[in-house]
């Protein structure tokens, strides 16, 4: 790849770190890898990666990506590495990311915090998206490397932003999955099999996704007027879902938390408003 070839260090060769290093090798970069258990580097060495004996050796690269399991496991490795430029791809909280940013600034390390919105098998494909926050100059300087991993999206100079987006998006995913599993359990009480129900659930999920921009507009404007579906009938529906779940002998955990939240919003005077008004009870 000629002049754009870079020396890239990768700290951590778990499922994700190995995928990152593999994509970088595929793009022709010179990849220096380090892992606590060096044997995991084998397949990457076969593809042309070089093995660093220590984190500091890997940190001699132009830019270092770190992808360890947690911030706690990562910090001693980062301290030992002391890279010039660090892109941290370990998942954590915004406060943890800001903590590393503060440490990096005190060490004179250019720092970008990223979160990977993909599974390892998606790395290097157009489906992978990676969110970044922190130093925009550092992001821009190494965008060529980051583009290899997945579509890079820069969110802002706050190093905690990527982790905040990550948790917000994962929260939506977990809520959706929990709702789906509750639905499967509920119809399952009458012998409906997942393969019978899932096509309908999948289409319904897409339709519900279509409501999001409208809900977002209402939250942005604070105008919760609706001629479509008021909160009170939705709150009543949730009470029916909870009652039916109990009657069918399954857990009420998923609907109970939503029923309680919607009921609080109704009690606060939002019964005739749109569902978007529930945000007033969440904030
Ligand atoms: P993983 O397969 O469990 O790998 C964990 C990595 O951390 C390994 O390289 C492991 O080294 C290293 N590690 C753990 N404790 C360590 C310690 N005390 N000192 C040094 N190294 C240590 O995890 P993963 O799936 O690659 O995930 C890595 C990060 O990517 C996580 O923060 C995860 O949330 C994030 N992520 C993962 C996915 C995914 O789908 N997998 C998606 C998005 C984001 P050893 O090999 O020596 O054990």
In short:
Helix 8 packs across helix 9 (194-209) and helix 11 runs antiparallel to helix 12 (253-270). This protein has helices at residues 15-26, 42-46, 55-58, 71-81, 94-107, 136-141, 143-149, 161-188, 194-209, 212-221, 231-247, 253-270, 279-282, and strands spanning 7-11, 30-34, 50-51, 63-66, 85-88, 110-117, 129-134, 151-156. The chain is an alpha/beta fold and 283 residues long.
Describe the structure.
- There is one protein chain.
- The protein has an eight-stranded mixed β-sheet, with helices on both faces.
- 54% of the residues lie in helices and 14% in strands.
- With 283 residues, it is an alpha/beta fold.
- It folds into two domains: 156 residues, NAD(P)-binding Rossmann-like Domain (Rossmann fold, 3-Layer(aba) Sandwich), CATH 3.40.50.720; 118 residues, N-(1-d-carboxylethyl)-l-norvaline Dehydrogenase, domain 2, CATH 1.10.1040.10.
- The site of NADP nicotinamide-adenine-dinucleotide phosphate has 20 residues, from α1 and α4.
Which SSEs are present, and which pair or pack?
Blueprint: E1 7-11, H1 15-26, E2 30-34, H2 42-46, E3 50-51, H3 55-58, E4 63-66, H4 71-81, E5 85-88, H5 94-107, E6 110-117, E7 129-134, H6 136-141, H7 143-149, E8 151-156, H8 161-188, H9 194-209, H10 212-221, H11 231-247, H12 253-270, H13 279-282
Helix pairs in contact: 8-9, 11-12
NADP nicotinamide-adenine-dinucleotide phosphate binds at residues 12-17, 35-37, 40, 67-69, 73, 77, 90-91, 116, 119-120.
